Fold:
Amino acid sequence: MPATLTVVVPCYNERDNVAPMVAALDKALAGITWEVVFVDDDSPDGTAAAARALASQDSRVRCIKRAGRRGLSSAVIEGALSSSAEYVAVIDGDMQHDETRLPLMLDAVRNGADMAVGSRHVQGGDASGLSSPLRVRLSETGIKLAQMMTRTSVSDPMSGFFLLRQELFEQLAGRLTGQGFKILLDLILAAPRRLNIAEIPYKFRPRAAGESKLDVLVLAQFAGLLIDKALHGLVPLRFISFALVGGVGVLINLAVLQLARAAGLEFTAAQTLGTIIAMVANFQLNNQLTYRAQRLKGTRAWRGLVLFLLVCSLGAYANIGIARALYAENGHGLASGAAGAAVGVVWNYAVSATLVWRLR
Ligand code: GDD
Ligand code: MN
Structure:
């Protein structure tokens, strides 16, 4: 019988939790035809092998193994898109979520909710499984921030435990950032209309085995997601990153200027050298950070560098021209300079995004 419900389990180094998870699902989902998909990012502990060993005995178990990639959200997306079932549920692979709530969640969606979310913060829920007071604070702050900035009333928008129609997931999939841990928040924000969300209380349990993968990078990605939404996607995250890199470039420029002058170079030559070095450094930084996902390599990188230098030179030319014209008109040096610089950075960003790092 084909499955009605696909349970997607993102996992990284969860080998010892795989078999208990299947056993727990088997118990919790009696009466429902289900399958489970473990989405593993080539964990060194052999999680995928453990899942496949079970899959060879039980056709309800599948495993997607991804090579050279990491990420909770993107793993969930791949697992959910691999499903042909009518409903998809997402649950952590470390037994922290309470799988016995799944039938209730399925009922809620069958009865008209767009999504059922397992919540630690509604009556009957419990977040005591968080591993430390620091995690409790982080979690509370994150929830408040997320609620404020996204105007969602969901009590646990950071939950990684939810269920929805596969069709709805597929509709939203193209708009997801796929970054970091916050796949539920990402889904809520991607929806063109307000989703009707049923919250099902559950008790967040302590981790069964292994350790948490939440780290500083995950928090940075979360901050990025919130900044992006706070600006209503109007200011692309890429632009913010590009502008920050530009700020670093200014510092490099000034540092080189000082050093070169100290070494005896005259001002114009020292400033020219500083500018060129800053632009090359900016190219490198943008290529590594801002455009990480489409990084230029080999000869493409050299061609990109030359183009980038050209684009930025034109940007500088426009910057100076505009600042000079404004200054002649109103005599306000700082404001004129700032306006020129703003035009310059927008120009550099827009043109380099389309010419230098255009999506292949
Ligand atoms: N495939 C894959 N790739 N899975 C991952 C990755 C990854 O890069 N990183 C983490 N996972 C899996 C873990 O193996 C685990 O099954 C699940 O995602 C959650 O990761 P944990 O490391 O256990 O996260 P946590 O317990 O700190 O965070 C949980 O609580 C948060 C709310 O406080 C998760 O449920 C989050 O989704 C939730 O937002
Ligand atoms: Mn966990």
